[in-house]
TrEMBL record:
Organism name: Coniosporium apollinis (strain CBS 100218) (Rock-inhabiting black yeast)
Transmembrane segments: 112-131, 151-174
Pfam families (alphabetical): DUF2470
DUF2470 domain: residues covered: 15-88
Official protein name in the record: DUF2470 domain-containing protein
Amino acid sequence: MDPSTPADEKERAMQQRIVTHMNADHRDSVIRYLEHYKGLSSFSARNARLEKMDLNSLHVRCGGALYTIPLDPPLSSLKEARERVVQMDREAIAGLGRSEVTVKEYRSPKGFHAVVFGLCLFTYVVFSRRGNVLPGSVVYDYLLKHVPGSSYFAGIQPAVLWLMVGIHAAEVVVMVRRLGRHSVPLLSRLWWMWMGSCFIEGYGSLQRFDALVREKAKQKH
C-alpha cells in the first residue's frame, strides 16, 4: 500500500517543477551557486544541474559529485522557493563580482564586421608561413602576383603575422575578463566561440559582445 498522501504528491510535483525550471532557464544561477557557496571554479561548475530542492537545502549534481547547499533559514513552504533562489543568486553575483547580465548566446559577425572577419582570417592564412607569399604557391600564383608590391610580402611575413597575433592576443585577454564577468562558463562551447571570434577579428567581437550586454540589460529593466 502506498503510504503517500495527496499533499506528498503535490509537494513532489512542485519540487519537480522547480528542478525542471531551474535547469531549463536558470542553469547560470545553479552554476553560480556552486561557485559562490561551494567555492568551485567556473570550469569545475560548468556542468552543474539542480537535482533536488527541499525545505532545507539545494542538491546540485556536477562532475559526478552531489553538492548540498543549506538554506538558511530553511523554507517553511516550497512556495517560498522562487524568492529564495533569486535572493541566493543575487548574493552569489555580488560575492563573485559578476554582472547581473548573463550572456548565453554568440552573435556572429555581420555586415562590416563580417568583412573584417574575412580579411583577418585571410591574412592569418596567407601570412601563416612564408612559402604562401612566394612564387610557386597557390596563393601567390592565383592572387598575390596581381597585387602591386607583393614581392615585398615575403620580407614582412613574420612581422605581419606576429603583429596580428600580438594585438589580437591582447584583445583576447579583454574578452576573457568580459566573459567571466557575464558568467560565460570557462572553456564551454559558448566561451570558445567568443574567444575564437576575438582571436580572428579582434575588436569587432568586443563591440558585438558589449552591444549584446546592453541589449540584455535593457530587457531586465
